[in-house]
Automatic annotation (TrEMBL):
It comes from the Bacteria. The keyword Repeat does not apply. Pfam families: adh_short. Keywords: Oxidoreductase. InterPro entries: KR_dom, NAD(P)-bd_dom_sf, Sc_DH/Rdtase_CS, SDR_fam. The lineage of its organism: Bacteria, Pseudomonadati, Pseudomonadota, Alphaproteobacteria, Hyphomicrobiales. Coiled coil: none annotated. The keyword Oxidoreductase applies. Signal peptide: none annotated. This is NAD(P)-dependent dehydrogenase (Short-subunit alcohol dehydrogenase family). One of its GO terms (molecular function) is oxidoreductase activity. Belongs to the short-chain dehydrogenases/reductases (SDR) family.
């Protein structure tokens, strides 16, 4: 009699920010395929978030969608607390929410600059800080980075590149503080998407 292998993330609980579509949705699906129960956050794409949750539940996983402003401290805390309450804890945090406005920095509107800083940097700080109260030793915090944070590949993304560079430094600094596991920053190329 062949024994069915246990999925590698069976029993783990994950939270993926900005995951109603694009890279975040793909990450959430892979976590569920590998056995994790998954909560996702989204800002605007409720139908896509609900469809993703239904797909993960169809795999036999617990899954929830949480509407959250990625730059809000209150929303970050609420998302983490809901994740922990409904899924029974938190083992894996994937910081995926991000925004990019391309354009000449000399004329870039302040609201576009602020939103990139608030979502791509401040938002990661806020949700990571909230999650650290729940993630046990051996848990994981993973942030989606960008090649733009290492070597700006083209003009028009100065602010975005700065935010991703800050994320790289934050990830390295946090890894020195924690003993609860590795904190890699995943480098990704550009992916066309709209805010979740």
């Amino acid at each position: 009699m062949n024994k069915i292998p246990t999925p590698p993330l069976a029993g783990k609980r994950a939270l993926v920010t900005g995951a109603a579509r694009g890279i975040g949705a793909a990450i959430a699906l892979k976590l569920a395929e590998d056995g994790a129960d998954v909560a996702i956050t989204y800002e605007k794409s409720a139908r896509k978030a609900d469809a993703l949750v239904a797909e993960m539940r169809g795999m036999g996983r617990k899954a929830i969608a949480i509407q959250a402003d990625a730059a809000s401290q209150e929303a970050a805390r609420a998302a983490v607390e809901r994740n922990a309450a409904e899924l029974g804890g938190l083992d894996i945090l994937i910081n995926n929410a991000g925004v990019l406005f391309a354009g000449d920095f000399s004329s870039q509107p302040l609201d576009e600059i602020d939103l990139q800083l608030n979502v791509n940097v401040r938002g990661v700080f806020l949700i990571t800080q909230a999650a650290l109260k729940h993630i046990p030793n051996g848990g994981r915090i993973i942030s989606t980075g960008s090649n733009a944070g290492l070597a700006v590949p083209f003009a028009g993304i100065a602010v975005y590149a700065a935010t991703k560079s800050a994320l790289e430094s934050f990830t390295r600094g946090l890894a020195r503080e924690l003993v609860r596991g590795t904190l890699p920053s995943i480098l990704s190329g550009l992916a066309q998407s709209t805010p979740t």
